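Pipeline run #58 for the internal structure catalog. This entry was flagged by the ingest filter as a single-chain record with no existing model, so it goes straight to prediction. Upstream metadata was stripped on purpose; only the residue string is passed forward. Reviewer on rotation: M.T. Logging verbosity set to normal.
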Amino acid sequence: MNYKAVSYFLGKIFIIVAMLLCLPLSVALYYSLQGFKEASYLSFIVPIALLLVLGFIMTFKKPKNLEIYTKEGFVICGLGWITMSLFGALPFVISGCIPSFIDAFFETVSGFTTTGASILSEIHSLPKSILFWRSFTHWIGGMGILSFMIAIVPKSKGDSMHIMKAEVPGPTTGKVVSKIGSSARILYIIYFTMTVLEILVLYFGTRLNGDNIRFFDCVVNAFATAGTGGFSVLNDSIKGYNSPFTEWTLTVFMFLFGVNFNLYYYALTKKLSSVFADEELRGYILINLTGVILITLNICHMYDSVAVAVRDSFFSVNSVMSTTGFCTADFNQWPTFSKIILMIIMCIGCSAGSTGGGLKVVRVELMVKQMFRDFRKTVRPNTVVRVRMNKKTVDPKIISGVNSYLNVYIIVFVLSVFLIAIDDFDPTTSFSAVIACLNNIGPGLEVVGPVGNYSGFSVFSKIVLIFDMLAGRLEMFPILLLFSPNTWKKTR
């Protein structure tokens, strides 16, 4: 373990998070000048000061050996996400909006991991700067703080790939161009551009439709959609706007942010054949539309208008499949058939290389292909059958990695359900809470449904769910490796 290199990169992360915290501080200054009751400036100045001091101390002397490998990359990723969540929780605690540090830590981890699970029941009355920071954590966590660091910090060596591999979701880590730093910058530019586009569509579109939603709401909702997080500034989430245009706009952008961002680069560079030939994209669309059709047929009798049923179905399916977690309908009240479909879609999630969570469509497709391959080999043992994806043979190491991930996923899921069962909630609540946190969805069923929250869980259960959110966002291994004694041994 190269401790000096790990410390140096963590220091860089601290400085970046301190810079990002200046944005909600600016929001606090602006709205206090406008006469609004705002959070104390110290709510942001204190964590900014702490992060800057620690960051400068840890980066003051650049180590001679900055070479890192997969192990160091995973440790930087795991520790980076935990520590930035600890410091990110301070504004909630210092402002008094969330007095309990564990609750504030839960809320912040939920924000950075783009889960959207909340312990708050009253949201609308919170200071604007706190609401901004709460949603901004989604945007930061959506593409990843380490990817942001790679994009803005120039590096001469190729060891950034080990950091990128630890944070980017999916069975493989792809590059759109030859250099990983340039790839990160391109993807962040696309991410930023799509976020700005959503803000503009929401702001001007709602005015043309007579909804007149505040610019502040357009910004924070775009942050939550881009990061597929789902924190809203209204107690009733998106339903509170009572705006069909807003719902359809968010539905479209939730779908778009659930697509592999590499495909957007291919589209921009006129490599449309690569986009249309992508099997994961086709699977993502197929699962999405199938879920919408089945749920619409199942719930249409509950609505006065088929159009409203279709809209709620489209919104809910895209919300859970992109793992955003916004809601316009209490799907807790839907028939069991529809709830089961949503739970399955929650586990599948969206595309690898997107800002969403879940198992990822590509993993599900690879598992299905592997199942059919094994079936054929059982019938004809001497037949050579290869698993192919996008007309290319899949490396057996990737198949092995998918199987390992699934095994770890199941073990973590079962253990988590077992541990939070101590709180004695009903089985549906316990199961769906773990599914929602492990897949970075947010809302589950029953107590943690779209109109509920996680405040009723004990401190112990919240810690378990915090672990699940981090493990789900970082795809298990960067968090699990922190608990392995071998991880901390010096490399010979």
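catalog note: Strands lie at 388-389, 392-393.
catalog note: The two ends are 9 Å apart (CA to CA).
status: ready for reviewer M.T.
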